[in-house]
Specification:
By secondary structure, the protein is of the alpha/beta class. The protein contains 14 helices and 20 strands. It folds into three domains: 22-120, Archaeosine Trna-guanine Transglycosylase, Chain: A, domain 4, CATH 2.30.130; 124-240, Transcription Regulator spoIIAA (2-Layer Sandwich), CATH 3.30.750; 262-452, Rossmann fold (3-Layer(aba) Sandwich), CATH 3.40.50.150. Helix 8 (266-275) runs parallel beside helix 9 and helix 12 (337-346) runs parallel beside helix 13. It is globular and about 70 Å long. Bound molecules: S-adenosyl-L-homocysteine.
């Protein structure tokens, strides 16, 4: 799962394919040449024909504990796959089979386990098919919901398909291929077969963030659809309108700072709307996700973002929903949230409800401390501006900042602001973004709903 920006940047709502953990860096660079040409030892040869990797004991323990990543620096010997499948057997230092992985030559995460047994090339397409079907089946309750027609259909490691994300926006599907192991025609062919049979999209586009594509050395995706219902311009269009909780949003695969909307916040939008009221402020609003939900129940809403382009879409989304929202005033303000909140809190501006949903400040473990300072500052300013009994909805999408640390920062901000803060709900990503408990990186989004007195 991807990466580390919300839109692009929002911890990419996910897990980095190129996450770098320096603790694992040994002398890999020096020895990598030799590794590529390593010959299997006689004991290994008995077990494995073809591509295989022997990994360090520490990495083997990690896989046995249910994780699925092996860092390049933990690969002790490798005979890389030469065929298009990129499947590789993974062995511990004693030569025991740990499972089968997808291999990426350029990623810091060289191996991503797809099963704990031996998976032959011929078994991979049927297994992919089974996993795609299971992933879609898990989303059936959302797919059957008449108020929502957008969700994440496939979430990488959390659906046992590491390196692959598929989002549905109404009649469009957007595929993100994040690793070399998923950048194969087998994967695309099987996916297209399953989705056309199960969700009949109008068109399927492939859109992978350029930064990831360069890092992973992935093939360039076509601009047009991989498939479409017909060749008409309407069916091949990259734009659509989708529903979340009964509100309408524009989506355009050719625009935007990232591959789409923040579908992981869908349930938090609805939760925020259960608590917020009065005058509301949505900080880092992007396309107005929280702001429009608040516009349903609040008297006045202000959305803030540093991106002019994002606010233009937010305003178009507001107009799209005028029929249900009526003529409520929503102000969009283009500003740096840190500067604006400091100025407003100093000058005594007040709100009844504030949402904070900044990008992933911490893109690495090392950056976590700086990120905590950023969260503290925004939360402190927001609390100073809340009227007594006000609601604070505060989010962090950085995997590197854990729930405990994030909660502690919100508590510290409350103390500094001399406010009493009570936690009403502790929330995560929507259920179409499941968390695989043995892969902590699949858990990244935290959303605290607090009453501030
Ligand atoms: N709340 C949004 C998602 C926010 S993504 C939703 O639910 O859809 C983070 C947003 O923060 C992006 O739109 C980005 O443009 C904006 N952003 C990043 N840094 C910012 C800053 N310093 N001040 C204001 N906005 C910022």
């Amino acid at each position: 799962m991807p990466a580390e920006d919300k839109p692009q940047s929002k911890d990419a709502k996910g897990v980095s394919p190129t996450r770098r953990d320096n603790r694992h860096r040994t002398n890999i660079e020096a020895s990598s040449k030799n590794k590529r040409h390593a010959a299997p030892s006689s004991s290994t040869r008995k077990i494995i024909q073809g591509a295989f990797a022997i990994i360090s004991r520490r990495a083997a323990d990690r896989l046995r504990a249910g994780h699925v990543w092996v860092y390049q620096s933990d690969v002790e010997k490798i005979v890389a796959p030469t065929d298009a499948s990129r499947l590789i057997a993974v062995l511990d230092p004693g030569g025991s089979l740990l499972g089968t992985a997808l291999y990426s030559a350029s990623s810091q995460i060289a191996l991503r386990l797809i099963g704990t047994g031996r998976i032959e090339n011929s078994a991979w397409p049927p297994l992919l098919k089974e996993r795609f079907r299971a992933a879609i089946a898990l989303r059936q309750p959302i797919l059957a919901n008449e108020h929502t027609d957008a969700c994440r259909l496939v979430f990488s490691e959390a659906d046992f398909l590491p390196g692959l994300i598929v989002d549905k926006y109404s009649d469009l599907l957007i595929l993100q291929i994040l690793t070399q192991g998923m950048d194969t025609s087998v994967v695309r062919d099987v996916l297209l077969e399953v989705v056309s049979e199960q969700v009949s999209p109008r068109a399927v586009f492939e859109r992978t963030d350029l930064r990831i594509r360069e890092l992973e050395q992935l093939s360039a995706a076509p601009e047009g659809p991989l498939v479409s219902r017909s060749n008409s311009p309407e069916d091949r269009s990259a734009a659509t309108i989708f529903y979340l909780n009964g509100l309408r949003f524009h989506y355009d695969a050719d625009l935007g700072q990232k591959t789409g909307a923040f579908l992981d916040q869908r349930e938090n939008y609805a939760a925020a709307a259960r608590y917020c009221r009065g005058e509301a402020l949505d900080v880092c609003t992007y396309h107005g996700g929280f702001a429009l939900h608040l516009a349903r129940i609040c008297r006045q809403v202000t959305g803030v973002d540093s991106s002019h382009a994002a606010l233009e879409v937010a305003d178009q989304n507001l107009e799209l929903n005028r029929g249900t929202l009526g003529d409520i005033a929503v102000d969009w303000i283009e500003a740096n949230a840190f500067d604006l909140l400091r100025d407003w809190s100093d000058s005594g501006s007040k709100f009844d409800s504030i949402v904070l949903d900044p990008p992933a400040f911490a893109k690495s473990k090392r950056a976590a401390e700086g990120a905590l300072r950023g969260y503290k500052e925004l939360n402190l300013r927001a609390m100073k501006m809340l009227r007594p009994g006000g609601t604070l909805v505060t989010c962090s999408c950085s995997h590197h900042v854990g729930l405990e640390d994030f909660t502690a920062v919100v508590a510290a901000a409350g103390l500094d602001a001399r406010r009493q803060v009570r936690l009403l709900e502790r929330r995560g990503a929507a259920s179409d973004h499941p968390v695989l408990l043995t892969v902590p990186e699949t858990e990244y989004l935290k959303c605290l709903i607090c009453r501030v007195d």
